[in-house]
Amino acid sequence: MAKKFYVVWAGRETGIFTSWDVTKRSVDKYPQAKYKSFATETEAKAAFAKSPASSIGKSAPAKTASGSSAVKSAGVGVSTKTLAANQTVLSQFDVVIYTDGGCEPNPGKAGSGMAIYRKGELAELWFGLYNPNGTNNTAELNALHQALIKAKKVLDGGETVQIMSDSQYSIKCVCEWAYGWKAKNWTRKTGEIANLEIIKQAHELYDAMKDDIVLQHVAAHIGIEGNELADRMSIHAIDQQHKAFSQFTAPLDINKILALRTG
């Protein structure tokens, strides 16, 4: 039997393995596991360096013990809940974008923030979209929308990108629920769809890029730097009452920025 190389993007352990037993232990019953087999080590290394969406559909997926494929083509990854898992994400993509929204109280004064990492290092911070009568959900959606705009530019430049949001609501609105709402002419039986216009805009962007981008939930306030910085930017937008969405121009002194007020 020809030797196979198994790439695991999302599992208990990630990497390239030559043993199916090892691979199975990593992915079996792991929520939304992402893995795939390749005929050569060169192909496997190239695939592991990119997002799983870049390889799905380009070679035969690895099979579970029952023979069914476990590779998922949807552009939504598993939740990132540890610092180690976050480091894996930073190492796998050219650009990683973290988003957050804040509101004080809720509803109340709202703002959005974004932190962009390139090659694992903080490259840019963005803040703004202040709304004196906003909600936390709207602020989160606004931040995700801005990240999708940035992600399109990254993809157009030939690089890989992943978006990390701590809002399950925003991710589900844009990547999941929107398909059903759109099929029913943007309506639902239970009543009006809140934040419909921003959902439409964000979903249109996502739908056009879904085969090349991963959106992933990241646990909030557990010390993941990108999430924490995006949070500080959302509150900075509120404090500055900054209505545009602008790049943070002060020096990127991470410790100083993390010392800013948190949401």
Instruction: Work out the count of structural domains.
Output: 2
Query: What is the H/E string?
Result: EEHEHHHEEEHEHHEHEH
> How much helicity do the residues have?
25-40%
Shape descriptor: globular
Strand order, sheet with most strands = 8-7-4-5-6-9
The residue-averaged pLDDT reads 87
As a percent range, the share of strand residues is 15-25%
Can you tell me the CATH architecture of the largest domain? 2-Layer Sandwich
The total beta strand count reads 9
- The CATH superfamily name of the largest domain is Ribonuclease H-like superfamily/Ribonuclease H
Function: Endonuclease that specifically degrades the RNA of RNA-DNA hybrids.
Keywords: Endonuclease, Hydrolase, Magnesium, Metal-binding, Nuclease
Enzyme class: hydrolase
Cofactor: Mg(2+)
